[in-house]
Amino acid sequence: MSGDKSIDIVSIGEPLMELAETERAGERLYAPGHGGDCSNAAIAAARHGARVAMLTAVGDDASGRSFLDLWDREGVDRTHVICREGERTGVYMISYGPDGHDFSYYRQGSAASLITPAEIPATTIARARVVHASGISQAISTSCADAVFAAMRMAREAGTLVSYDTNLRLRLWPLDRARAVIQAAAAMSDIVLPGLDDARKLTGLDAPEEICALYLRLGARVVALTLGADGAMIATPEGVATIPARRVAAVDATGAGDAFDGAFLADYLLHGDAVRAGEYANAAAALSVTGYGAVGPLPTQAEVEGFISNG
């Protein structure tokens, strides 16, 4: 077990350049931004004071360089981010309509999808208190799925906690394969962060309490199940707590789950109280839906604490 835990969170996943629909002078335009669930979660955690490192790859292109600049500005260590010459960074577009936001992805063959287990730095994993990944991290390619499993094994050997968001994207893989891989990853995780809609598809269960119980049986110490407009449920072997939603003027839910993940991990590492961390993360996720895009609305620690103190 490593005694040098100088990184709070290592986040493994694919960054995606964001093009979000907007309108100017009656013309529909797409404004550039940044996204990708594990990058969003890393930035969210950094804004809450955590020491965070990204483990991924970007293309040697304008989008990749934009991410390197972003992580530098946000205080996210990108020492182990690979810049692949001749490869490209993935892109997604957000359009808005009466039913909410709609995503279009252009990510096949992205630089991040080429990550292999051999590129996972064991020494960095050992220095972290938590390694965080998601179902998307594993869905983008077979080599990425294997790389995440390799990182999880390294973490367990080094006494590093494993955090996993089940984040299901059926555009990337069929449900049966997703169920098998995600359940195997959840069984290797200390903290499982599912969303209710995805969890129902993945488990075949309906009740939030039953979903939490399943992930606890697989071996999780903490299950933080987000319930959308109904708040969150936090489950540990000691008990279950439901955290009610906070009412805000929501305009865009893009990245809300990532805001929850980053805030939860950052706060949990401060004190180890899962319910308290869930309350904090629930407030952070609520604030994140009051602005457009994935990264811009991610709140800071001071903003969340002010929001909570104001009731």
Description:
The strands form three sheets. Strands 6-4-1-10-11-12-13-14-15 form a nine-stranded mixed sheet, sandwiched between helices. It has one domain: UDP-N-acetylmuramoyl-L-alanine:D-glutamate ligase, CATH 3.40.1190.20. The model has no long low-confidence stretch (mean pLDDT 94). Helices cover 40% and strands 26% of the residues. A hairpin with a 2-residue loop joins strand 14 and strand 15. With 311 residues, it is of the alpha/beta class.
Computed structural class: alpha/beta
The count of helical stretches stands at 11
Rounded to the nearest angstrom, the radius of gyration is 18 Å
Q: What is the strand arrangement across the widest sheet? A: 6-4-1-10-11-12-13-14-15
Q: Count every beta strand, where a strand is a DSSP E run of 2 or more residues.
A: 15
Report the β-strand fraction as a percent range.
25-35%
Mean pLDDT: 94
Summarize this entry quickly.
By secondary structure, the protein is an alpha/beta fold. It has one domain (7-309): 3-Layer(aba) Sandwich (UDP-N-acetylmuramoyl-L-alanine:D-glutamate ligase). Helices cover 40% and strands 26% of the residues.
Feature tags:
311 residues; alpha/beta; UDP-N-acetylmuramoyl-L-alanine:D-glutamate ligase; nine-stranded mixed β-sheet; four-stranded mixed β-sheet; 11 helices; 15 strands; 40% helix; 26% strand; globular
